[in-house]
Amino acid sequence: MFFLFIFVSLGAIAIEPATAGTRIIGGNFALAGQFPHQVSLQLRGRHHCGGSLISPTMIVTAAHCTIGQTPSQMRVIAGTADLLAGDGKSFGIAKFIIHPQYNSQTQDYDLSLIQLSSPVTLDDNIGVIGLADMEANHAADTVATISGYGAINGNLELPNRLKYARVQLWSRDFCNPKNIPGITDRMICAGHPSGQVSACQGDSGGPLTVDNKLFGVVSWGFGCGAAGKPAMYTYVGALRSWIKQNSGV
User: Fold this and answer.
1) At 31, phi and psi to the nearest 5?
2) 142-178 pLDDT tens trace
3) What pTM value is reported for the model?
4) Which of 16, 74, 162, 189 could disulfide-link to 81, CB 3.0 to 4.6 Å?
5) Cβ pair 53, 129 in contact under 8 A
6) What is the C-alpha separation between 48 and 96, in angstroms, rounded?
7) Bridge-partner residues for 43, per DSSP?
8) pLDDT of 175-193, one tens digit each?
9) Got the DSSP string for 5-46?
10) What's the gap between Cα 84 and its chain centre?
């Protein structure tokens, strides 16, 4: 049964024995400065979603992370791999720019920009990530990287530490409306056949990168790491012109 699970974080690290031809792609806690573009969107002082810094004043995240919220309710924490360490830097938010075609029922056009109240200072722990080109594409089974502060198991336990994992892009031969009702051309899917490496609650809005460029944004999935079910990501290449028009990047 198809289930729209909106808030999708890095799943369990352990991987079942692989079948022939299947990669075993694990996950780990990140080191300081390893993913300098990764930010935590905080709602009333608690981690809410992930995001990616694309300029000193602009962040890309998922629309469902900002819809219904106000900038005064949220802050951005950047420059830390551990939200409890106290070494992150906090920034206020000037405004949200939500894609005008975002559909909260289908999660189509699930993309939002966040404009900061003041620019961040780039350093070893805070940096920007480049964006995939318009309509950029990669072959099925290309290895991508996901990262986030979200839940690490099906019990939705939040570690407060940044994790990352390698996942594979899935072919459009499988990721199409026939097999995945609701998928559109603004979505891509990625995961691991075992289902044990995936995105989960709290990772929404965070990055999926290929070749050190932002290729996707965590959007929705089938719970946390269901076997044979990929997670869905907003396809940055399909919305590249809108991002440039509204962010200047």
Assistant:
1) -90, 160
2) 999 999 987 554 544 556 889 998 899 999 888 899 8
3) 0.86
4) 162
5) yes
6) 15
7) 46, 74
8) 899 888 889 999 999 987 6
9) B-------S--PPPPTT-----EEEPPTTSSTTEEEEEETTE
10) 21
Whole-number average pLDDT of the chain: 84
Q: CA-to-CA distance for 206 and 199, rounded, in angstroms?
A: 9
Among all residues, which ones are annotated catalytic?
A: 64, 110, 204
pLDDT of 88-110, one tens digit each?
999 999 999 999 999 999 999 99
Question: pLDDT tens digit string along 10-34?
Answer: 432 222 222 222 222 347 889 999 9
Give the Cα separation of 170 and 116 in Å (integer).
Answer: 34
* CA 172 vs CA 141, 168, 176, 195, 203: distances in Å: 11, 13, 6, 18, 24
Give, for 247, the enclosing helix (H) or strand (E).
Answer: helix 240-247
Cβ distance 169 to 144 under 8 Å?
yes
Beta strands in the chain (DSSP E): 27-29, 38-43, 46-55, 58-61, 74-78, 89-91, 93-98, 112-116, 130-131, 143-148, 163-169, 187-191, 207-210, 213-220, 231-235
Query: Is 38-128+241-247 CATH 2.40.10.10?
Result: yes
Pick the CATH number of 129-237 from 2.40.30.10, 3.40.350.10, 2.70.50.60, 2.40.10.10: 2.40.10.10
Query: What is the C-alpha to C-alpha distance for residues 188 and 171, in angstroms, rounded to an integer?
Result: 9
Q: Are 174 and 187 in contact (CB under 8 A)?
A: no
